[in-house]
Inverse folding.
């Protein structure tokens, strides 16, 4: 994705040379297309607000950035009632606002390196409550950490029931998305040579992951049976090696299945099942939570998920109050038994 293509998609970049230059550097560094797209979206929205208010983005201050934040938080949402991640039909979620601010902050880092500014009006949120400031700074927007939503057993069964009416490709994709805790792009980018049916594993290539971290993950026997059925079906569409999941529509027949097509499939399942919160990422959250429920070590879950940090894994695991109560009861039962043994001398008598 070259700079000229970006300027065609977002014309405002053509009016701000420094912004286009900054984005061009990320393109030349080989950042993933989706990363470039997210950066371009964030910086162009900011430039448009500056242009509307007659503000030079190069010399803008924190108050000008705050106007941009207010714009993001209060604008009418074009998706309206179809938005399932927000609490209302207006504004963007806290996480999305944080995402929009990242390219703005990086743009000002670039201007500082170029000697065009002395400070960054966005800041980095290094302030720690309860401590003296000591040169640290509070983030421009408070970062809210919400538990990810996962379906309960009844909701999950309704989704599976809806999926039974789908073709073999969609059923396999849903099974793999859960079984291997795959992100949407990782799932849709799978190739035939990523599979190892003999060992029931698949390779998630570094270039398709969020953090460029390659991994090999297993899938279950049941998913393996679906895989063999799908490969036989795929051969009726195309015998060529390459993308695993192919479109079966007339317009894009035998072309790689797009991210957006898979999103539409999952959205349709969610609505049919009466579980509108269900999304392409829900299966990943559910899988990692189930692994934690089964007693997997945190480091093992992080490796399976492809996280560099266990902190990222912790944000994905959603143990319910009932799960935690059971773990507490189990732990307390063990401690209680040990204390009783110590009090009654049972352990010492058994040793003699």
């Amino acid at each position: 994705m070259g700079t000229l293509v970006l300027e065609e998609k977002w014309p405002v970049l053509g009016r701000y040379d420094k912004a286009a230059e900054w984005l061009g550097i990320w393109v030349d560094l080989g950042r993933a297309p989706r990363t470039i797209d997210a950066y371009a979206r964030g910086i162009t929205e900011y430039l448009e607000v500056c242009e509307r208010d007659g503000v030079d983005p190069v010399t803008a201050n924190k108050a000008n950035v705050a106007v941009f934040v207010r714009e993001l938080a209060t604008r009418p949402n074009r998706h309206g009632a179809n938005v399932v991640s927000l609490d209302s039909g207006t504004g963007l979620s806290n996480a999305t606002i944080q995402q929009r601010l990242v390219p703005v902050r990086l743009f000002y880092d670039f201007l500082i390196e170029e000697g065009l500014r002395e400070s960054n009006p966005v800041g980095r949120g290094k302030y720690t409550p309860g401590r003296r400031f000591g040169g640290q700074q509070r983030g421009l927007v408070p970062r809210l950490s919400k538990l990810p939503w996962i379906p309960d057993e009844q909701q999950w069964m309704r989704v599976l029931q809806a999926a039974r009416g789908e073709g073999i490709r969609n059923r396999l994709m849903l099974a793999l998305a859960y079984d291997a805790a795959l992100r949407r792009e990782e799932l849709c980018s799978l190739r035939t040579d990523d599979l190892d049916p003999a060992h029931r594993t698949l390779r998630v290539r570094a270039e398709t992951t969020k953090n460029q971290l390659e991994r090999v993950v297993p899938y279950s026997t049941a998913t393996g049976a679906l895989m063999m059925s799908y490969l036989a079906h795929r051969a009726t569409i195309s015998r060529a090696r390459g993308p695993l999941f192919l479109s079966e529509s007339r317009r894009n027949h035998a072309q790689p299945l797009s991210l957006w097509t898979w999103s539409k499939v999952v959205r349709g399942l969610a609505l049919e099942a009466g579980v509108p919160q269900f999304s392409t990422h829900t299966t990943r959250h559910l899988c990692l939570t189930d692994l934690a429920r089964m007693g997997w070590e945190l480091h093992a879950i992080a490796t399976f998920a492809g996280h560099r940090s266990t902190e990222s894994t912790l944000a994905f695991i959603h143990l319910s109050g009932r799960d935690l109560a059971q773990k507490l009861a189990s732990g307390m039962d063990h401690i209680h038994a040990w204390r009783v043994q110590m009090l009654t001398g049972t352990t010492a008598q058994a040793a003699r």
Remarks:
- The two ends are 77 Å apart (CA to CA).
- The mean pLDDT is 81.
- Residues 321-344 form the longest helix (24 residues).
